[in-house]
Amino acid sequence: MANPNQTTAVVSACRNTVKRQTLTKHHRHRQELSDLIPGLPDHIAELCLSRVHPSLLYSVCLSWSRLIYSPCFPPFLSLYTVLSSKRTDHSDLTNSIQFFNFDPISSRWASLPPPPPDPPLRLLLRHPSFISRYLPIQFVSVSGHLILLAATAHNFSPALSRPLIFNPLSRTWVFGPQLASPRRWCAAGAINGAIYVGSGIGSYFSADVAKSVEKWDFLHNKKTAAVTGHCLTTRSKGSSWKWEKVKGLKDGRFSRDAIDAVGWRGKLCMVNVKGHAAKEGLVYDTEKDAWEDMPEGMLAGWKGPVAAMDEEVMYVVEEIKGALKKYDPERDDWEYIMESERLIGAQQIAAGGGRVCVVCSGSNNGGIVVLDVVAMPVRLWILETPPGFEAVAVHILPRMSQPDLLFPVVDYSSNVQSNLKS
């Protein structure tokens, strides 16, 4: 039998070795970031380099490429995607989706850290009864966070009773507050840092749920956490950590499909049917807590997925024609920008950093169409997905942190550099 004193000494020595290795690695990373610009203190050098586009810094030297992923450098934008296996076995009801991030500076795909195992996340994307379409998985992006709000479980009940939040800068998932009415096939959107879900159905249809709307002031929680030194993993017992009811809908006509409620200039805009079909449209005024009919011109041109750039400029990609248009509120009309067969079949879009990213069904080999809407004429290219996967949804958020840098995470999401490299 081993001597207990010897065993203790060995364990202690191993711990000291691990500690020394960790400190050495930490010191090495610090050294690699030191002398960013010879003759300047690092904090001054960081300010100077933060004015340079990260794509230029990345290829110069190791210390500069590490800098753009450190907390002291404003995070650039990247893509967050829901990807599905290209297998077409519709009888397989296992979870076949993956969450991925595309870094436009390094041009690399990386899988997101797995969500919390308890409760397990079971999302139904395909079912033999719905061969021709995906079952909706509804996300919104708010204040630099990706938030999963609604999906369908294998028993056709709502997959989530609480929103699931991913923070790219800390690479962590946490659950939000309990929904008063968990739902699927609902309207979901965000405006001014608040998240809204409405209509839809639960495990079965309910007229009350189909007409109800809930709001969570996510940005208030985030600011409170920053002031008090807590993160969102620590629940505040304040009254704001909850969903509250707002003005409901007059009927249940918006429970027919999963709806993107688009945040635009202090309002939420949504229609009750996707695509080119005849539809109804509503606009929610967040200040007045009131619903009103959508302007005629806005509704007439809503012929595909819509997204708003910085909640200020709305874009639509027409599903049938593949035309990109921009909404002009002065004329209540959609201004034609460009058209491409690559955009035909558009199912979902995201806008940010001067780019509009489009997911189309059955085309582009499962890739994502990226449009540079700042350039004139508009530039278009296809972002290929990882082998064996096709895109289901896309969002634009700050890049993920790099855990091997061993730096504390600081939230710079309010000052994100705009870039989605071609």
Automatic annotation (TrEMBL):
<dbReference type="InterPro" id="IPR015915">
    <property type="entry name" value="Kelch-typ_b-propeller"/>
</dbReference>
<protein>
    <recommendedName>
        <fullName>F-box domain-containing protein</fullName>
    </recommendedName>
</protein>
